[in-house]
Design brief:
It contains four helices and two strands; from the N terminus they run αααβαβ. It is α+β, with helices and mostly antiparallel strands.
Length: 84
């Protein structure tokens, strides 16, 4: 109960922004297991979950990727493409 209340307080801004955008916000604890990843894949395939990506970099450009991360200007995930 305490943890639920704490996370409700900590994510109040995100809930408010999601409501304004007519979306839902849900905080989830991630676990490195196949069942949880399979559930995420189902939500993505059904269009119920979207993953925002800012930019993809080739592995040789990893320095540029980290500079973007450190700048705080990334608007989504920064991707390092192996073999690109």
């Amino acid at each position: 109960m305490f943890i639920q209340t704490l996370f409700a307080l900590l994510t109040h801004r995100q809930h408010k922004l999601a409501k304004k955008a007519q979306a839902r916000f849900r905080y989830m604890f991630m676990h490195p297991d196949g069942d949880q990843l399979a559930q995420f894949a189902k939500w993505i395939d059904a269009g119920e979950l979207s993953v925002g990506a800012d930019k993809a970099f080739a592995m040789v450009d990893f320095k540029d990727a980290f500079e973007l991360l450190e700048s705080g200007q990334a608007k989504g995930k920064v991707i390092l493409a192996i073999g690109a």
